[in-house]
Structure formats: structure tokens, C-alpha cells
Amino acid sequence: MTLFDAGQPASTPQAEGRRVKLVVAYDGTDFHGFAAQPGVRTVEAVLGDALASVLQVPVECLNLTCAGRTDAGVHARGQVVGLDAPPDVDLDRLSRAVNKMAGPEMVVRRAEPASADFDARRSARWRTYQYTILNRPEPDPFLARFAWWVPESLDLAILRLAADPFVGEHDFGAFCRRGTGTTVRRVLESRWHASGDVLRYEIRARAFCWQMVRSIVGVLIEAGTGRRRPGDILGVLRSRDRSVAGQLAPARGLCLWDVGYDT
Q: What is the domain range of residue 209?
């Protein structure tokens, strides 16, 4: 089981170039997050190098933006990336060429024209993350890269009750890494899905702060195993104190699932 069910050279983009929107999926296990950083392998660096090679332009000319700067080890099914490309670029051939270079670890699922002012981060109206839990006594080697194995029994009804208080606009200071800045966020959905012993937590918000989803999942799992009561969650949220929230869920279970834009 996995998360995810070469081209003609082109001239350097000029002012008359076109803005392009890519939907990108990747296995984040061996990437040090999305954002380019010196001396480490990141999604942005690998994708940027592939795009620059296919389009035959310097990376800095691409003007790359992304919907969410995922952390080290975090995956994506619906990461959105914006870039500048030559006006005559063949988007199908661009996708095939990048996928040949970077796949299967990272693939362009879709490429389409975008408006000249499209910014993958600032134009986004919401983001959805999914967190996968494997809840059974023994681990699964085929899910190990994409799920948090929790051998203790989890009460799904309790998990669902505990997830409800997060919906709405709150100060998520208790669930965000210190130094994030403003921690007020509006959550649109917070719910659990189950398929046998595979549980998936889905949360949709306008935006997220650093490590917010992993912190929320950590607290929810404590509730699901009986170490906290569902009624405790609101108190943790209101505390705005990161030390009250407790454990941080591992990065491997988290996936940037989808990003919404105005049509």
C-alpha cells in the first residue's frame, strides 16, 4: 500500500511567460522537509532542479511557491506548487519529464495553467491534512513509512468526541511549536475515518501553524487510549501552553492531502 494511487528544452521565461500550477505528491521519508535548505535534500530542491533541467532555465527564474512547507518526514498527496514557465510550455510533456527524473518518490499528478497572480500559498483558501494510525498489536512493514503504529487499543467513539472541540476559530498556542508567531487559526473540519485497523484523522483549516496537526494527533491518541478524557481537550486548547498538550505524533503518519482555491 502506498500513498499515491522526459521533455523538449525551452527558452528562459520572459515577462510574457505563463504561470503554472502543479499538484505534487511525494513520499517525505527521505526529504528534510519541503523548503530548500543548504546541505540537505529537500522537496523544493529536487523538484526545482528537475523543472530547471527540463525547462532549461535557472532555478531562481522559476519563482516557486508552495501551499504548505511540510516538515521533514511528512508526505503529500496534494501539495500545490506554482511556477513561472515559458509561454509555449507543453504541460503534459513537462509532467512526464519531471516524473521520469524524480519518480516514484515524487511525482507531478497534474499540471495546469494558472492566473498571472497565482501564489500557491497566498491564493489557497484551505488545506486538508490526513494523519494515518495503524491500530493493532503487530506493525505492518508495508505501512511503516506512512502510518504511526499504535499497539494499544483505541476507542474510536472517544477519538471522535475528542476531535470535535477543534472546529472553529481558536488560539492553538498549546498545539504549535514555540516561536510560531500568531497561533490563532480557523479549523473547518476535524474528524476520524476508520477502515478496519487503519484509522485516519482528517483536519481542514484555512492555515496551520508549525507542528499543529502532529500535536493535535498526539493529544487525541492519549484520549483514545484513556490517558485523557475527551472533556480535557477543551482545557488543553484554552491553556495556550504547549507543555500541557504533551506528546508530538511522529512525522511519518502525516500527509498534506488537498488544498482548495477559488474556482
A: 124-261
The verdict on 186 and 245 lying in the same domain is: yes
| C-beta separation of 146 from 28 below 8 A | no
In a domain, 101, yes or no: yes
Final residue belonging to a domain, choices 56, 81, 114: 114
Q: In this structure, which long-range contacts are made by residues 90-98, counting pairs with CB atoms below 8 Å and at least 24 apart in sequence? A: 90/7, 90/8, 91/20, 93/7, 93/8, 94/7, 94/20, 94/51, 94/54, 94/55, 95/22, 96/6, 96/7, 97/6, 97/7, 97/50, 97/54, 98/47, 98/50, 98/51, 98/54
Domain total of the chain: 2
Q: What is the pLDDT of residues 194-252, one digit of tens each?
A: 999 999 999 999 999 999 999 999 999 999 999 999 999 999 999 999 999 988 999 99
Instruction: Specify if 11 maps to a domain.
Output: no
Q: CB atoms < 10 A from the CB of 60, how many? A: 9
Q: Which of the following is catalytic: 27, 30, 49, 71?
A: 71
pLDDT digits (tens, 9 = 90+) for 134-173: 999 999 999 999 999 999 999 999 999 999 999 999 999 9
> Given a cut of 90, is residue 9 above it in pLDDT?
no
Is 71 tagged catalytic?
yes
234 in the same domain as 150: yes
Q: Using an 8 Å Cβ cutoff, are 177 and 242 in contact? A: yes
Q: Is residue 1 part of a domain?
A: no
Q: Which of 85, 137, 129 is nearest to 111 (CA)?
A: 85
Report the CATH number that the domain containing residue 231 is assigned in CATH. Answer: 3.30.70.660
